[in-house]
């Protein structure tokens, strides 16, 4: 008898069990990525916002005869260009776990500065540079106070809001019309699109700002540091990341975007007034949260903020098309949506913490 004769017979191949047959392939890999990574979770939130936007616009197209026209959709960008830019700056701040309550007041300051300087005879390019520099300076000062003095962003930016609004009234109380040729040309001329549709130059600029912000957040060291600070500021510091410069930088970006939003708003209405932009910072925060950015920071996409602004614009358009609803229903609807998204964020965060 040989050794081979005493070797036990090999077990036959086991048939595939139902569990083995149902092992997830690429679909499961995508599902695990969506659940386990911050980018994946942010993508889910953005998709939810996108679905909500499609549902709202589809409902309006069914309910109202002319709502489904392409120009109505493009008007969401035209009429909310300044808010899109404002939401981009707010996204940077919220991603670090901060908040900026001064944005609306800085928008008003931008309109008042532009109108008053143009009225005083300043050339338009110099006026634009002065407004943007002022917004960036205010953001830099608030960022220094928040990081250097370890003060709460809520308190610092609240003080910045009162400061900016007070400067507005110090410059001029009544509304100042804008009659500059450059501002008027930008307000009147449009970018022609196929099908007889168009976009304003302000809307095009807002989309460029969104694209640049997305590149900075996802393709630069600064952007990765923004996400790291929002995830855990102490861990980011231990990794040797430039926490201080980044925290100050996001408030500079927010101030710059607020000033740019003020310029777009002044072009949109061709006037400057100290009472412009009241509550606009709350609209920007709502758009960012509805767009999927966590209020505690560390997770979110700037594209989601764009979709959040479009959702708010669609709600306003639906109420305008109806004609029989009070404009306050816009605030009521936005408040309900904001509460729903905050609750969903909380539930998602708890589930992620339990899974980890």
Automatic annotation (TrEMBL):
GO terms for cellular component: plasma membrane. The chain crosses the membrane at residues 41-60, 72-94, 101-120, 126-147, 154-178, 198-217, 248-269, 301-319, 325-344. It is found in: Cell membrane. GO terms for molecular function: transmembrane transporter activity. Keywords: Cell membrane, Membrane, Sugar transport, Transmembrane, Transmembrane helix, Transport. Pfam families: BPD_transp_2. Its main location: membrane. It is a multi-pass membrane protein. Residues 1-25 are annotated as: Disordered. It comes from the Bacteria. This is Simple sugar transport system permease protein.
């Amino acid at each position: 008898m040989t050794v081979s004769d005493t070797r036990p017979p090999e077990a036959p191949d086991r048939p595939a069990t139902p569990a083995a047959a149902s092992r997830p392939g690429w679909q499961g890999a995508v599902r695990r990525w969506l659940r386990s990574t911050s980018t994946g979770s942010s993508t889910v939130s953005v998709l939810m916002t996108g679905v909500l936007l499609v549902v709202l616009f589809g409902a309006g197209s069914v309910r109202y005869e002319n709502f489904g026209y392409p120009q109505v959709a493009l008007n969401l960008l035209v009429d909310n260009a300044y808010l899109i830019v404002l939401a981009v700056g707010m996204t940077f701040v919220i991603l670090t776990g901060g908040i900026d309550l001064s944005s609306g007041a800085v928008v008003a300051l931008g309109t008042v500065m532009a109108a008053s300087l143009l009225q005083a005879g300043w050339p338009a390019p110099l006026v634009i540079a002065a407004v943007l520099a002022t917004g960036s300076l205010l953001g830099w000062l608030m960022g220094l106070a928040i990081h250097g003095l370890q003060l709460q962003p809520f308190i610092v930016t609240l003080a910045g809001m009162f400061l900016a609004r007070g400067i507005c009234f110090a410059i001029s109380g009544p509304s100042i019309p804008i009659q500059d040729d450059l501002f008027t040309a930008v307000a009147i001329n449009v970018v022609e699109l196929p099908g007889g549709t168009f976009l304003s130059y302000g809307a095009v600029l807002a989309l460029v700002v969104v694209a640049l912000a997305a590149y900075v957040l996802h393709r630069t060291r600064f952007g990765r540091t923004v996400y790291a600070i929002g995830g855990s500021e102490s861990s980011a510091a231990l990794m040797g990341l430039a926490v201080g410069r980044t925290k100050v930088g996001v408030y500079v970006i927010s101030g710059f975007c607020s000033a740019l939003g003020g310029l777009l708003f002044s072009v949109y209405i061709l006037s400057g007034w100290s009472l412009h932009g009241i509550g606009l910072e709350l609209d920007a925060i709502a758009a960012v949260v509805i767009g999927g950015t966590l209020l505690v920071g560390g997770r979110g996409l700037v594209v989601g903020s764009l979709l959040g602004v479009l959702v708010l614009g669609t709600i306003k358009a639906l109420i305008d098309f109806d004609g029989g609803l009070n404009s306050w229903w816009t605030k009521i609807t936005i408040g309900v949506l904001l509460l729903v998204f905050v609750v969903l964020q909380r539930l998602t965060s708890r589930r992620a913490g339990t899974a980890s």
